[in-house]
Amino acid sequence: MFALTKEISGMLGWDASWLSIILASCLAVGQALEVYTNHFHVHTKEPGIENAHKIAKRHGFINRGPVLGSDKEFHFVQPALSHARTRRSVAHHAKLHKDDDVLHVEQLTGYRRSKRGYRPLEERLQTQLDFSPVQSPTDPLYKYQWYLKNTGQAGGKARLDLNVEKAWAMGFTGKNITTAIMDDGVDYMHPDIKNNFNADASYDFSSNDPFPYPRYTDDWFNSHGTRCAGEIVGARDNGVCGVGVAYDGKVAGIRMLDQPYMTDLIEANSMGHEPNKIHIYSASWGPTDDGKTVDGPRNATMRAIVKGVNEGRNGLGSIFVWASGDGGEDDDCNCDGYAASMWTISINSAINNGENAHYDESCSSTLASTFSNGGRNPETGVATTDLYGRCTRSHSGTSAAAPEAAGVFALALEANPQLTWRDLQHLTVLTSTRNSLFDGRCRELPELGLAIPDNHKTTSGNCTHFEWQMNGVGLEYNHLFGFGVLDAAEMVMMSLVWKTVPPRYHCSAGAIDTPYEIPADGNLILELNTDACVGTATEVRYLEHVQAVVSFNSTRRGDTTLYLVSPMGTRY
């Protein structure tokens, strides 16, 4: 059932009725001012990298190599052009287009991708810590890592954590699992990271070399990837910083974020890099969190993600973990095409007392949550590694939440290396728990209208809150936290006995192809009946993912809200 309502907010998704995996899709839109880079996507008529090198050389280009392992698609760069310009380079495009050995060429547009971290806190709390084994024989920041073991420190809720100590006690610490940090680089010489760094799986797609070390800036802006890496593989009991969730695992650095404008091929090659050596790809970035940007993966990037889940890890499927966003209540993570994709696992955050962080976005596409800081109390920051051998206690935002989830998934993959990408989504849904998570944000009723479905909200005074709901199969969910906080021990234990899900089939449920006008009262309800492709080779017996493609015209995007209602009555 579809319901279009003239209201505020963006597009919302739907939950599938069996495992109720909440996912949604948003359409990508371009920037107001198109930017053209000096990167070109070239399709050659004849296969082979040597042939591509010859084409690039005779026209003054540099061939950066194949796209997604293809022998006929290549990434060319023109050094004579600036990285960003407002017009296409007709002359350089024509040189390649007229070449008899070139089938097709496209000059790539540039777009913004933002790191997800609460910067005001970073600027206010930039005290860097430097420890040595002489000062402490154990990890000195572990007592501040409340998200690993919450004893109530800094006013937190005791036992509200990832429950990793129990998983460690069972012997699972991330061994033989590699997580790639797709970011601004990793300080792989850091004493808490260096022994767990996987150089063979690392690459710098910003500088096109095998050394993904962060570029120096005075404000340490490129510390983002190093901080994320330490959350996953920070060494245990070495007297430096804290400890990672999967401290015996490996981390790969994929430097791709540190540049003025992102391109489709840099993203695609990053997400398709060494898919049989990398198990998990962790991304703490996305479209600008400004409440008005609706964007997502472009063509080559989407192909890379789909190829990863179908072919990565020798056919088991690459795991893509995404931070849901830091735009707060003025933004909606459904309109981030990376976090909302059915191929990724979108992670939101909570602070140490169970409340949502003030920068958290709400949406139906969030699958689960981990922890970050609330930007209020310095003691609730995320403690991890920092640049140049240092440590920090001020990592924040959903940037910090996604790597924690990647670490938990590494423990699950160690427990059962045969888990597919779909298995891990199922395990996330089934083992995540409400625990003490709650929506502590006050949303004034006049500003909300019907932006939150009635059965998802409670009213107290002049405030409205996202409430926990029970779906048709008895699982609790929340628009802020998904199915709850990850539980490492529960996930590991279920992974040990998990039976791989049956093959996935795609069924087109049907279509409503008659145009409708939203009536004057502002509500339009459309029903779609389906037989689930019964009697065909793609008959659906268990519903796992739902994707709805909807086209509509509106004078302002924010004036229209889309709800999907499942056959069992669950509404998003």
UniProtKB/TrEMBL annotation:
<dbReference type="GO" id="GO:0030537">
    <property type="term" value="P:larval behavior"/>
</dbReference>
<feature type="active site" description="Charge relay system">
    <location>
        <position position="399"/>
    </location>
</feature>
<dbReference type="InterPro" id="IPR023828">
    <property type="entry name" value="Peptidase_S8_Ser-AS"/>
</dbReference>
<dbReference type="InterPro" id="IPR038466">
    <property type="entry name" value="S8_pro-domain_sf"/>
</dbReference>
<dbReference type="InterPro" id="IPR015500">
    <property type="entry name" value="Peptidase_S8_subtilisin-rel"/>
</dbReference>
<dbReference type="InterPro" id="IPR002884">
    <property type="entry name" value="P_dom"/>
</dbReference>
<dbReference type="InterPro" id="IPR036852">
    <property type="entry name" value="Peptidase_S8/S53_dom_sf"/>
</dbReference>
<dbReference type="Pfam" id="PF16470">
    <property type="entry name" value="S8_pro-domain"/>
</dbReference>
<feature type="active site" description="Charge relay system">
    <location>
        <position position="183"/>
    </location>
</feature>
<dbReference type="InterPro" id="IPR034182">
    <property type="entry name" value="Kexin/furin"/>
</dbReference>
<feature type="active site" description="Charge relay system">
    <location>
        <position position="224"/>
    </location>
</feature>
<keyword id="KW-0645">Protease</keyword>
<keyword id="KW-0964">Secreted</keyword>
<dbReference type="GO" id="GO:0005615">
    <property type="term" value="C:extracellular space"/>
</dbReference>
<dbReference type="Pfam" id="PF00082">
    <property type="entry name" value="Peptidase_S8"/>
</dbReference>
<dbReference type="InterPro" id="IPR000209">
    <property type="entry name" value="Peptidase_S8/S53_dom"/>
</dbReference>
<dbReference type="InterPro" id="IPR008979">
    <property type="entry name" value="Galactose-bd-like_sf"/>
</dbReference>
<keyword id="KW-0165">Cleavage on pair of basic residues</keyword>
<dbReference type="InterPro" id="IPR023827">
    <property type="entry name" value="Peptidase_S8_Asp-AS"/>
</dbReference>
<keyword id="KW-0325">Glycoprotein</keyword>
<comment type="similarity">
    <text>Belongs to the peptidase S8 family. Furin subfamily.</text>
</comment>
<dbReference type="GO" id="GO:0043005">
    <property type="term" value="C:neuron projection"/>
</dbReference>
<keyword id="KW-0732">Signal</keyword>
<keyword id="KW-0865">Zymogen</keyword>
<dbReference type="InterPro" id="IPR032815">
    <property type="entry name" value="S8_pro-domain"/>
</dbReference>
<keyword id="KW-0378">Hydrolase</keyword>
<keyword id="KW-0720">Serine protease</keyword>
<dbReference type="GO" id="GO:0004252">
    <property type="term" value="F:serine-type endopeptidase activity"/>
</dbReference>
<dbReference type="GO" id="GO:0016486">
    <property type="term" value="P:peptide hormone processing"/>
</dbReference>
<protein>
    <recommendedName>
        <fullName>Neuroendocrine convertase 2</fullName>
        <ecNumber>3.4.21.94</ecNumber>
    </recommendedName>
</protein>
<feature type="domain" description="P/Homo B">
    <location>
        <begin position="500"/>
        <end position="572"/>
    </location>
</feature>
<dbReference type="Pfam" id="PF01483">
    <property type="entry name" value="P_proprotein"/>
</dbReference>
<dbReference type="InterPro" id="IPR022398">
    <property type="entry name" value="Peptidase_S8_His-AS"/>
</dbReference>
<keyword id="KW-1015">Disulfide bond</keyword>
<dbReference type="GO" id="GO:0016020">
    <property type="term" value="C:membrane"/>
</dbReference>
